[in-house]
Amino acid sequence: MPGLLIRWLILTAAIIAAAYLLEGIEVAGFSSAFFAAAILGVLNALLRPVLLVLTLPINILSLGLFTFVINALMLMMVSGVIGGFEVRGFWSAVFGSLVVSLVSWGLSSFVNERGRIEYIELRRGPGGRWG
To answer: Radius of gyration (Cα) for the chain, nearest Å?
Structure first.
């Protein structure tokens, strides 16, 4: 259960980062981003796999770049449901999905499969090697 909450907060931070970096995305506050992350998480779990299978030929031809279009459409769908979260325009949604994906991936790399935050500590060993 803590892993779900940590990933939810990571997605919230990614949405806030996208709103901060892009002009076409606005978030009224933390609660709007928090609920937008919840809806986006549900859509990612339920609708995204179906859309990826249905658009598989287009996705293969575009070398996977069509996935950002699918993510952008889901971001626009969330914008229609959550009042304090607004995405204006398709290209804002595409770049927003790129920012959300990168920030979410970057922050999720510090969370292990049990939902705990972990880090790697490197020490210099014998022979001057790091390990």
So the answer is: 17
Tell me, yes or no, whether 120 lies in a domain.
no
Residue 119 in domain: no
3-state secondary structure of 27: strand
pLDDT one-digit tens code per residue, 1-18:
667 788 888 899 999 999
Domain for residue 47, yes or no? yes
> How many beta carbons lie within 10 A of that of residue 120, not counting itself?
5
131 in a structural domain: no
| Total count of domains within the chain | 1
Tens-place pLDDT, residues 58-100: 999 999 999 999 999 999 999 999 989 999 999 999 999 999 9
